[in-house]
Amino acid sequence: MRRRNTRKCLQEGLKDLRLPTIRSSCQKVAEQARAESLSHEEFLLALVDQGARRAAPRPHRASSTGVEPAAGETPEGFDRKRLPRKVDAHINVLLEGAFLDSCEFVVG
Questions:
Q1: CB under 8 Å to 78, separation ≥6 — which residues?
Q2: Residue among 43, 50, 46 at smallest CA distance from 21
Q3: Which of 12, 47, 87, 94 is a Cys-bridge partner for 83, taking CB atoms 3.0 to 4.6 Å apart?
Q4: CA angle at residue 106 from 100 to 107, to 5 degrees?
Q5: pTM for the full model?
Q6: 51: number of Cβ within 10 Å
Q7: SS3 for 42?
């Protein structure tokens, strides 16, 4: 009874922490750890390693296939009419890029 309650609490805790990758592989890694008599630390390391491998950044498909972004996905095609004036002004500054040429010496 205690094991099932622990399992349920662990699943809920991982859900609260927003760790879906670890939550989905927790049971399998726990069974493997039991079979291999792993220590608690080794179990946690195996669980985190598996979660990190799944969450590793993958290359963006469009950049790897040479597909052009759809209209609206480029700065020129973005509909800025719905933005607040202040945000639109910031975008203008960023698009112009004039700030890239300026440099200031800052003494900290």
A1: 72
A2: 50
A3: 87
A4: 165
A5: 0.42
A6: 20
A7: helix
Residue reference for tokens 């669980």: 47
Contact of 22 with 47, CB cutoff 8 Å: yes
Per-residue model confidence as pLDDT tens digits over 10-47: 778 777 777 788 888 888 888 988 999 988 888 888 88
Tell me the C-alpha distance between 33 and 20, whole Å: 20
Question: What pLDDT sits at residue 1?
Answer: 45
Q: Which two tokens stand for residue 36?
A: 């291999």
CA 64 – CA 60 distance, rounded (Å): 6
DSSP sequence for 34-54:
HHTT--HHHHHHHHHHHHHHH
